[in-house]
Structures are given as structure tokens and as C-alpha cells.
Amino acid sequence: MKTTAVVGLGNMGIGMAKNLLQAGLSVIGHDLRAERLDLLAEVGGTPAGDLADLGAADVVFVMVMSGAQVMDVVMGLKEVLNDGATIIVTATIEPAEMRAIEKAIAGCEFNLIDSPVSGGKFGAEAGTLTMMVAAADEVFAANQDVLNAVGEQIFHVGLSPGMGQTVKASLQALIGVTFVGIFESLAMGAKAGIRGETLYEVFGSTHVGNTPFFKNCAKLIMDRQFEETGSHISTMYKDLGISMAMARENGMPLFATSTAYELFQAGISLYPEGDNWSIVKLLEQISGTEVHW
User: Fold this and answer.
1) Cα–Cα distance for residue pair 154/77, rounded to 1 Å
2) What are 44-83's pLDDT values in tens digits?
3) Which of 51, 71, 170, 211 is most buried by a 10 A CB count?
4) CA 147 to CA 139: how far, in whole Å?
5) Tens digit of pLDDT for each residue in 271-282?
6) Contacts of 206 (CB under 8 A, 6+ apart)
């Protein structure tokens, strides 16, 4: 039986750890926050106070926030992992940062998988994440068990680290623009005097609105639930920044995505503790309306 580890036990990391445990795998977890280590112990995992305690792991998932944090974790693991171990970076970082990490560990006798995920807190808890995996064919094949323990849709998107992050950055551009379309369309309808329930029913009957993405977002807005729903605005803002950075690197103009990025910048300035849907409150302030049932 493989020993797995999760570095970063936030909403995503703890959900992944639970699913690894449910799959019958041994799980060690590391986080800088004592309360998250306690939570891991409560669900049956083994807390680790230091990266050095992860040396026995066969597979380590890295689910932290930034590229700098991923680099620090990987360089720490470099000193303790056994030959043949695998590091799976499920954090969302810049493709260039992922390539720099690959370069920093060149010559090491362990494997590196670039696999950002999509699905949020719900997907992490349910084990239904979409995973964008970039790894050599043999490494991808050898880690099917752990990937399938945390994900439902597993896509082998490339062979080289950075390619998974490239797909994720492209996806986040789509998601960010879609969010803004939902926020603006609901606020516009409400301003014009249409009941929220009507907007929800009509939009939800169409091919673009009859999706869990729209229905969950619209319901949270109309229920006025703007915090602690598992989709903090800072994460999406960070991800859109990665999309913009990749566009600049490739000389690609992103007209709609750049607008979404600026709107998320405004949203996080006003509602730093809010979730993504908090942005609709900004539109409500500007237009003098409120989106509700």
C-alpha cells in the first residue's frame, strides 16, 4: 500500500486527504496551522509538523497557494524523499513557475507531476475534481490509483511540467469571464425590475444556464451568501492573474479576461473576506439595485 502525503490542508487539501484515506491509502499531512493538523488527525490522517517528516511518502500532493510556496515545498522535499517517489503539484501556479521547479530538481531520482485541478471545495470533498495532468506516460500510468482517489475526470494533457498549468490558466480565463457574465446579467435584470426567481428559471432553462455552475452561483447570490461558501475571491483573483501573465508571455491580448481580472481586483478591494459572488454587490452599489429572489 502506498503512503501518501498532502502538503497544504486548506479546504482543498483536507478534502483530498479524506478521499485518499477512503481509498485505503495511508496519509501524512503537513500544514503551518496547528488547527488544520488537528483536523487531519480527526479524519484519520497522521499530522506532520515538518516537511522532514514526509520522507517515507511514496506520493506527495502539494496544494498551497503560490508558486513561491510550491518551490519552497519541493526544495524541502528534495532533501528527504526516497528515490522513486512522486510529487504531484495540484496547486495552481504560473506555467513558467512550474518549469522553473522542474529545472530546480533536475537530476533528482523522484518524479514530478504537474496537475492543477478544478472543482473547488465541493469537488475536493466529493472526490470529483477535474485533473489536468502533465507527466511522462509511465509516471502517469504508475499513479492512476492516487489520481483516481481524488479526481473523477483525469486528463493527460501533456508530457512536460508546465503544460498542466497552461491548460488550467486557459480554463480560468473561461471561468472568470463566465462569472462576470452571470453577475452582470443578474444585476441588469434586477435593475430593470425583473424578479430574481424569474431570471433564475429562465436563464436556468437555456443551454448556457442549465448547468450546476450557473445554478449554484445564482442561488448563492439570491440567497445573499457571500462568505464561507468555499470559493474565496482571492483564489480566483490569483488565478486570473496567472491567466494574464501567461497571455503576456505569449503575446496574446485577452480583452474579456482582462476586464474580468479588473472586476475581481475591485471586488477583492471592497470585500477581501468575500467569495466570488461578492462582486455582484459592487454592481448593485453602482446600479442601486439588489439581486434577490
Assistant:
1) 25
2) 999 999 999 999 999 999 999 999 999 999 999 999 999 9
3) 51
4) 11
5) 999 999 999 999
6) none
CB 91 within 8 A of CB 65: yes
Instruction: Give yes or no for a contact between 118 and 139, defined as CB atoms under 8 angstroms apart.
Output: no
Cβ 17 vs Cβ 29: under 8 Å = yes
Cα gap 175→224, rounded to integer Å: 21
Q: Read off the C-alpha cell for 290.
A: 439588489
What secondary structure, in 3-state letters, does the chain show? CCEEEEECCCHHHHHHHHHHHHCCCEEEEECCCHHHHHHHHHCCCEEECCHHHHCCCCEEEECCCCHHHHHHHHHHHHCCCCCCCEEEECCCCCHHHHHHHHHHCCCCCCEEEECCEECHHHHHHHCCEEEEEECCHHHHHHCHHHHHHHEEEEEEEECCCCHHHHHHHHHHHHHHHHHHHHHHHHHHHHHCCCCHHHHHHHHHCCCCCCCHHHHHHHHHHHCCCCCCCCCEHHHHHHHHHHHHHHHHHCCCCCHHHHHHHHHHHHHHHHCCCCEHHHHHHHHHHHHCCCCCC
Query: How much is the average pLDDT of 178-199?
Result: 98
The residues, ordered by sequence, that sit 6+ positions from 44 with a Cβ below 8 Å of its Cβ are 21, 27
pLDDT at 1 over 90: no
The three grid cell numbers given for residue 57, joined into one nine-digit string: 511518502
Sign of the dihedral defined by the CA atoms of residues 213, 244, 87, 31, in that order:
negative
CB 280 within 8 A of CB 221: yes
